[in-house]
What does this fold into?
Amino acid sequence: MNTKKNFLVLMVFLLAMHKGFAQDSLALDHVYSLKECVDIALKNNADVNKTELLMENSKVSSTLAKANMYPFLSGQINHGLSTGRSIDPFTNTYINQNLSTANFNVDASLALWNAGAIKNNIKANNLGYEASRMDLQQQKDNTTISVILAYLQVLNNQEQLNAAIQQADVTRKQVERLEVLNKDGAVAPGTYYDTKGQLANDEMNVIALKNALETSRLTLTQLMNVLYAPDLKVEKINIGNNLALYDGSSRQIYNEALQNLALVKAVDLRKESADKTVKSARGQMFPTLSLNGGVGTNYSSAATTANLLSTSDVRTDDYVLGDAGKLYVYTPQSQYSYPKISYGSQWTNNFNTYVNIGLRIPILNGLQSKSRLNNARIDVKRTELEAKTTKTLLQQAVEQAYLNMNTAYERYEKLQTQVQDFAESFRGAEVKFNEGAITSVDYLIIKNSFDRSNINLIAAKYDYILRTKILDFYQGRLQL
It folds into this structure.
């Protein structure tokens, strides 16, 4: 019975764990737009979420740096019990008894001048926070461009598949026509079997493109971090048949990227933050002027007060000699009671305050201040190198992307002309083949050339669009 119960508990736990780590599912029979795909990816992307948490950490650091401008305020309450010989805090003398004590203190300190160390530290942390915001934006842009490219790849494969299906349908109709003629002996068997073999090639091409489409869908769903949906439907984008050459030179695109790309802004902000950190570290090597103050009170269970009860004259051993002999000296003697002073009375009576201005001069602290300054200077050089490297790599990437875009456009233009030429050639060849004026070999050569040019044109069109989107990405103007 216990084994069965433990098994049920284990199953419930595993189901709960599975639910906690399960990916989102896409809605069935819904056509997803590009914006919807990007929004889902930004919501689910682990790198975006991690970068957002890093940004929140930077925000906390920025808030802490600003808090250093405010006074430091602390309170302290101590209650204690001692036995045996100890010092009475009320009289500051030794006593030998059970003693309970209490201390209450509130202290405050405000830095009046510290050579700009706090102010520059605030600026450094603010710039670091802004840099982390740019990191988050860059991560979102990276995810967005990846989803856009994957989305366009799905459309590309879908369009190629549709074209391949149409090409197979054309061949299938020819096979059906030739099959009837072959049965009647009205056509050479070789012509029929050549065309039938071509149909098999077309159908294998359809299978290959179906696999490519499913692969691109898988890539898109992985970027969206959702469960794979074989029937994922995406909304078509109005691309048009006549694409224009991308506007702008590589130099213009690079200059735009320097102004708009979050990646560049992040490295520049980190360089500025490093400069402010150097100034803050240098300020810590100067004296610090501060204003200090506080209030406090205390309590002691041994504290008592003396109350006069009565006064009487008491003879002492001292005397004076007179005519009558010894005359003893009398002195007044008072009787007191010593009641305990109450907690509330001691709270009021022992209340004290203090205020002072202090100057802290760093003389020797194990080279900590100098080491911080040297490390800050090294960080400046590192951020300068990082900024320079980032901009150099960006320039190289833009130049390569621009070259790829021009090549893709030239290929697209050539293929447009080729498709038009092959379309005319195939139209005439189909008429001649149906009339028996050309052989199946000639017909299939022309058809294959026409089919291949159609597929290549679709691929070239989307390749060019992908290249333009990459250039848009570098300029920080992605549009969904």
Remarks:
- The CA atoms of residues 101 and 300 lie 5 Å apart.
- Confidence is low (pLDDT under 50) at residues 1-22.
- Residues 368-435 form the longest helix (68 residues).
- The first strand starts at residue 31 and ends at 32.
